[in-house]
Amino acid sequence: MNYLNFKCDINIEDNPLNLNIDDYLQVGIRNNPKRRFLFVSKVLGKHLACKPKIMDEIGESIVEVYNTKNLGFKNNKGIVISFAETGTALGHSVFNYLDGDYEFIHTTREKVDEYKSLEFLEEHSHATDHNLYFEELENINYGDHILLVDDEITTANTCINIIRKIQSIYPKKKYTICSILNWVSNENIDKIKKIEKELKCSIEFVYLFKGNFDFNISEEIQYKEIEDLKISQKKLCVNYINLDMKDYIGDKRYIKYSGRFGINKNDQANLIKVIKREKNKLEVKNKEDNILVLGSEEFMYVPMMFAKEMEGNIYYHSTSRSPIIENKNQNYPINTKFKLNSFYNEETVNYVYNLEKNHYKECFLFVELKQDKKNYEKIINIFKQTNIEKLNIVVCS
């Protein structure tokens, strides 16, 4: 991949399902000195839109590879942990397709004083603090197996950080690190083998692609942060929809079934029932139009599942904290970019990319927590800058 002023050579060494890597990623540049490049997924529904069915099937594919590698493993009791924010929906999908008595939880950047957190760091991220509110998990005490799920594993340092933390409190026999992309070097594998002996557990990898890459920027990109948009006078139809997600947690009314505080297989079954009941509130009049379902930050899986149930030509992706540099070059993944404040923490900057890529006529924006309508003024103004004619703000509390 060679365009703009950078080059990335990718070498795939193992591809267990014989997939085409070009169907899964493009390379972008981000405004982060810790790590300048970003593998922009075509299938995760985070920065780039995809069909929701394709997004959900990635978790199913990872479980397929996992099952093939673990035919003799009889312990069906454990926990699936995914990493915020990009990996939240992926891990939830893995949990959904995984057989056995597993629970699911994802890390979160949300601060919830009522819950005790297992804290650790994601070292190369733009937002390093993770909280894991583990107190509701039964298998943290009784299960022997933990699956750690993220879209990409580069050094495995984040996974090792959480493994060390868990082993110091609730020792497990086995950890499986699952990802779409695995770039872990032989040198880091050797380190992990030593850590296995030190911590008295096994650490294995499951992935769709294993390999290495060489990334070079020929010259530093001169980048100026985008400014706030001027208020547009364009007409935009704005509609508010309230969904009843049945079970909530805390004063803020977090959705129980999102996985932020842990769910089991019965909770997952209840989530699917709620989605099938509430989907009738999300009506698309013209099934020929391109429709966007937009999640927000960590809140990805539940909107994606609603998108799967909706009738029409539906695409899905989400707002993001990740600051990717945009460019009009059509070979580059991020062509347009808007900046907004987080719906969950006003001081946190969010971005939404490529809103006009698929010529959408209508958008369903999913927000987990109830907001004052003033908090939507900025996102409404963003949509007024596009060709989208109708914005449905879907509040799930």
Helix content: 10-25%
Count of DSSP E strands? 20
Number of helices: 8
Largest sheet: 7 strands, mixed
Main sheet: strand order: 1-2-11-10-9-5-6
GO molecular function: glycosyltransferase activity
InterPro entries: PRTase-like (IPR029057), PRTase_2 (IPR041688), PRTase_dom (IPR000836), TRSP_dom (IPR022537), UCP020967 (IPR011214)
Domain TRSP: 258-382
Keywords: Glycosyltransferase, Transferase
Written account of the structure:
- Keywords: Glycosyltransferase, Transferase.
- Strand 9 (145-153), helix 4 and strand 10 form a beta-alpha-beta unit.
- It contains 8 helices and 20 strands.
- The strands form 6 sheets. It has a 7-stranded mixed β-sheet, sandwiched between helices. The protein has a 5-stranded parallel β-sheet with strand order 12-20-19-15-16, with helices on one face.
- It has 397 residues and is an alpha/beta fold.
- It is globular.
- Helix 1 (52-69) crosses helix 2 and helix 6 (265-278) packs across helix 7 (301-309).
- It folds into 2 domains: 2-217, 3-Layer(aba) Sandwich (Rossmann fold), CATH 3.40.50.2020; 237-395, Rossmann fold.
- The model is unreliable at 124-128 (pLDDT under 50).
Protein topology:
Blueprint lengths: L1 E2 L2 E9 L10 E5 L7 E5 L10 H18 L7 E6 L5 H10 L3 E6 L13 E2 L7 E2 L8 H4 L2 E9 L3 H13 L4 E9 L3 H14 L2 E16 L19 E6 L5 E2 L4 E2 L9 H14 L11 E6 L5 H9 L3 E6 L18 E5 L7 E5 L8 E6 L9 H8 L5 E6 L2
Parallel strand pairs: 5-6, 5-9, 9-10, 10-11, 12-20, 15-16, 15-19, 19-20
Antiparallel strand pairs: 1-2, 2-11, 3-4, 7-8, 13-14, 17-18
Helix pairs in contact: 1-2, 1-7, 6-7
